TrEMBL record:
The organism's taxonomic lineage, starting at the top: Eukaryota, Fungi, Dikarya, Ascomycota, Pezizomycotina
Family from the record: Belongs to the eIF-2B alpha/beta/delta subunits family.
Basic and acidic residues bias locations: 48-65
Main localization, broad class: cytoplasm
This protein's UniProt keywords: Cytoplasm, Initiation factor, Protein biosynthesis
Membrane-spanning parts: none
Name under which the protein is recorded: Translation initiation factor eIF2B subunit delta
Amino acid sequence: MATEGTSAPAVALTAQADGQAVVAHANAPAPAPADTPQLTPAQLKAKAKAEKAARRAKVKEDKEVVAAAAQSQAADAKSGKGKGRDGAQTSGPQGPGKVGLTHRPSMSGRRPSILIVEKDIRSSIPECFSHLPMAKRIPLSQVHKDVHPAVLSIGQQMSTFAIKDSISRLEATLKAFRKVIESYETPKGNSLSRHFVPHALNPQIEYLTECRPMCFSMGNAIRLLKAKVNSFDIDTPEDEAKEGLLEMIELFINERITLAEFVIARNAAKQIQDGDLVLTYGSHRLVEKTFLRARGDGRSFSVSIIDDPYDRGGQVMATTLRKAGIRVFYSPNLGGLKTHVERATNVILGAEAIFANGSLHAAAGTADIAVAATAASKKVIALCETINFDRERVSVDALTYNEIDPEQNSAESFRLLYDTTRDHYITGVITEFETGSGNSPAQAILALLRKQEDPALN
């Protein structure tokens, strides 16, 4: 964090023996005086904002320094220079994303405290796609000191896609927040309702967002959690407030995740009849549970899986379904899509989220399936929990809200993780709400949300 004052901390460039670019900061922040007066909540909030702005400025400064060094190195390489100052060999790039710089040994033979900096892997993305976020691993040395170890762990797993789908990320986040609440202690002179969110919860959210863009369900759940915290009176005892938050999280997981999954699978299974050939795309937890539930109910049917050629999750689901006694036809990509669609009785697709205008946000390739099925007059059913509904944002294309796949990003090309399917290509959406057959039009999303939020409408 940059120290207060009129002069910026001195910055020096050096390099490791393996050619990585490093930035050394000569000045360290001065310790706070022992007699610092107690700050009010407003002053603490203003101080936190100032510290956050200072950290961002520091990161931006480091990136500019490294970018300038990279340009200098590229110019030297183009002109054929192979030696650094004092005859030292200039190190070249040490792999994807690394920047090599000249290292001049210090007189004492010791290196200063250093911070390894990597070249921005987004540098090859065209400017017109620069607004799209991408998951990245955050070095532990750059993590805020207030990030809880449980949150730190799931953040790393999200950045590497070990925890991938939206509901799994939501459940892992809520369980980590439960540990944050259990270990939280309100400082003397503060109240939980005023101190917890800005000083304990927000650092966790910021870290998770830096690791990977927040999914729709996480955003909705966090808004509900903050609303619960703000509902506490300033005089509410800490133990009582913490107990209320823990109960809310437990109830949320049971009702909005576990029970919702059970109800959606049960309702969707009713859409499958004996002799049907159901087409699906890739692998989705709700779709898999629907097929297993229909098989458990005694129905005899077949499943045609068109897999995502990059993810290959359909292979795992195909193995699971075959073990359950379901006949499976597997296609590794979208080749022959028209033929597969024409053979199918109906189509069941999993969704990551649904926008306020009824558009479906799902794995890249889902829109192709839905469009082809609609052209062939096949029924297209989407499965989605209401916690994944977005009541404010609308989308008509895949370029407004999306993510760039970090594993499929190179200087020549990159891949988007999701696509958007317009509502007129979706016959109906099945949620955990009991609406007759459980199959509601995609355009009814706002009515579903109003019913969810207002118990009087139930």
